[in-house]
Amino acid sequence: MNLSVRNPVAESIVQTVKPAPRVADLNGKRIGLYWNVKAGGDLALERTEVLLHDRFPDATFSYHRGTVGMVMRHVSAAEADRISKEVDVVVGTSSD
Amino acid sequence: MMEFERRGVPTVSFTAETFVRDAHRSAESFGFPELPIAIAPLPFTNQSPAGISAMVDGFIDQVITGLTVDVRRTQPKSEIITVSEDWLTIEGTSELDALDQMNRLFLEYDWSDGFPLFAPVKSALDRMLTGTTRDPNEVIAILEPGFGKATVEKIAVACVMAGCRPEHLPVVIAAVEALADPKINLRNKAMSTGAAAALMWVNGPIAKRIGMNSGICALGPGAPSYVNAVIGRALHLCMMNIGQTYPGISDMDTIGTPAKFSMCVAENEAASHWDPYHIEHGYDKDTSTATVHFVYGICELFDLTSYKAENLTEVFATAAKNAAQVCTGLWLIGRRADPRYGTEEKEEHTMFICPEHADVFKADGWSKDDVRRAMHAKSRLSFELLMLSKERKAFDAVHPELAWLWDSPQTMLPVVEDKDCYNLVVVGGTVGRGSFMWGSGAPVTKVIKT
To answer: Are B377 and B448 in contact (CB under 8 A)?
Structure first.
């Protein structure tokens, strides 16, 4: 005995984001440290700066965080534009 | 982080081991499956500074690799199962056996809410679609996080599986519209580690017409609440199979909540002296509406003694003053927001006022606004207590004008932004026991079109 049942899963709209080209070396690069304001992420980024500075002494660092949201904060389009001009790469917290 | 990649800036995201599957699933649905991540063994939350440093020491090489080596998918996929066939053939030794096999398969595919499902066979689907005049191919909404097209037909499939009848379909369609409203910020609720569940209440003539329960045990199980139960269940199945809110894959709810199975009622409009919720919000009495509010949990509003409105709100306010709830005092560190749509939400609560308590307010001549004002005035906690579970840096960034509070930590502050953060709906039987539900953002109401 066979049952023919409808697939319940909806078709999805496919989104595409092209990955940015990676950098060859972090030396001399402007490294952005982005915190989403989840607890402990700021400490992880501070430690990241210490470790990356040890290996790439010519790199420079800047700290950023979003202004939109609360427990988890996001960047607005304008902030993303501005930060993207100020840094070469971003290391960040995206969840907990 | 994808906003930076979009702008040509390479990124690496810290992700805890437990969220790797979620991270890949999110990245896939947002169009960036290659997302480079550096995996920490644990979330940073509730960790000591030394513990966090040790974790970073362990994954720093992944950070460097993610920024300097061309990204390829080297991580395991999110494991979400995709089936391309529109119709699936399920074999069994009998119809009952085939139904059992279907339920087993749907569990394997993550398409089930865990309870046995009805089979979405063609005859059942056709019958369900008689509940609306809308075109089955009409796209009602796009549901995040999976950006699924909520066609009338896919909503009808969820309704069949949940056990709905055709006359329930328009209610679920309206609720799906509400889910997709940018003000709901569905992605925020659907992909959280928190237990926000979709509470729905229905107003207007349709509630009685389709047999919804607004009285005794309206939010509970059993025959009186059958319609409520299956409509709420269908909504959650829509979140799963249309929006791809799959537990453990994208829904990372830490403990979970039974509220996610189904949470739907009708307002007991006949037992209320106030305007019902939909009229209060600008709809006429002949219009039927579905309102969806994501809420974290339920606290009983028990008071069999008070016969004065002032006393009742004194008791009710203790529910709002629960510092362990995420939403309590959250305004101190900002608002829930979605930068894509420019939406911001205050944290709102929903109170189901039982008819007996409504009568107490009536006797004292209190309007809903009077109740809200009293709740806002009485629901206060000290700044020190409210900030115990919040990031100081977030407060400092959002409210620099309130920096003086650090020197006056015992200052009493309201737990929500203003009186309108309390939504009042009359529900239930005739004893003094209501329900308080801590909200995650604000409710959204949509008209039910038959």
So the answer is: no
